[in-house]
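Lab notebook, bench 4. Continuing the backlog of folding jobs that were queued last week. Each job is logged with the same field layout so the records can be merged later without manual cleanup. Today's entry covers Leucyl aminopeptidase, a 467-residue chain. Filled in by technician R.K.

JOB TYPE: sequence-to-structure
TARGET: Leucyl aminopeptidase
LENGTH: 467
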Amino acid sequence: MSPRFADPSAPSLPLWLVRPGESGPAFPQDTGAATRQWAMAQGFKGNAGQVCLLPAPDGTISGALYGIGPVAAATGRPPRERYLLARAAETLPSGNWRLACQPDGFDAALGALGWLFAQYRFARYKKAEPPSAWLVCPDNVDQTRLLALAGGEFLARDLINTPTSDMGPAELEQAARDLADRYSAEISVTAGDQLLAQNFPMIHAVGRAGAQAPRLLDLRFPGDGPRVTLVGKGVCFDTGGLDIKPAASMALMKKDMGGAANVLGLAETMARLGLTRDIRLRVLIPAVENAISSNAFRPGDILTSRKGLTVEVNNTDAEGRLVLADALALADEEAPELLISMATLTGAARVALGPDLPPFFCDDDRVAAALQASGRDHADPIWRMPFWEPYESMIEPAIADLDNAPGGGFAGAITAALFLRRFTGRARHYAHFDIYGWQPSAAPGRPKGGAGQGMRAILNALPGILT
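JOB STATUS: finished
OUTPUT FIELD FOLLOWS
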């Protein structure tokens, strides 16, 4: 389904937003004494997520109070619930609702976005109950922008949630073609042995054992201005290759194309907002399945990359960086103003920061600060980690230029990022995002399953980075 707001001309019920106070809830002035007494009798305190339905004289519902907790800035900590109104969308009775007030410190745009995010349902294989509580877009909020943000998020979630039986390299290609058709973008696809002929040897090596041919998807959106290139890892399933994963580690590997899903979702939002008119947006996705067959690449193989660097394969389960390397080398040949890679790349990143806080790597302090501030301000948290130069020697084996899986077990997210950086150098700015792409347990506005990460942080930081 597509996200939507309620028709503002249709009847709607008022929703008062209330914060806790020192001596009780900080009720808005236009709530009467009877309403306040009713709420206090129900134990309503204004804590985040609390709902108090208000009765009309005829026994119907006349509105509701909804607790939004203290101002986040006052606590100095991010709120436990990222989207304050998402829980309201999931718990209020069916019907149309409108915000009757907007307390100081409340971000109405973020609240409305959370309400939209709560509408998401993945119903491709199983019937799901549709949303029943709808929000009238608040005053002074850009409805078009919020619907574009939610549309990009929904696309990323759908792509990740779809199992590989219906989202292999060919189906991921079709998703990219559909996006290109919607926004008059050009798309070219290099597949199978054409990858060797056109010098993408590592994409070919990783994907040649798959049931579907490996391919490189290349989308260019019509526009003029600085070059911005997004590269997303599109490993549609990762068995680990000949270094096969145990069954438990394979359970979520349909999400190993989460980087591709995120760059497609980001491109969807940018195109819907018309931002692609003022930049030259390019999206590159190496789409493969890391499978096992007689022609699978092997531990110990030496691969020669598009850039000419040789790579010793010390673990076939570190395949994402191999396919990204060829795509990054291609992207870097144009010397874009901004080059971004997104990938579900390392377990080390999850160990360091958990599933909810993806690390990113960037050498430019100004760009990194813009990205991190944007993530903080738009409830899309990310955390900077270093391209730590002293670890460069860890990715330099004895018999090749690079090692795709250095031993020792230390700094796995950093060494992977350092590996990718070797395939850039002409781009003015490069940032790499090591995302998880998955919500492991349901939270308001974030159902269990595929998740966008870093998209809004990047989107809202772009104007500052490109100036």
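OBSERVATION: Residues 45 and 53 are 13 Å apart (CA to CA).
SIGNED: R.K.
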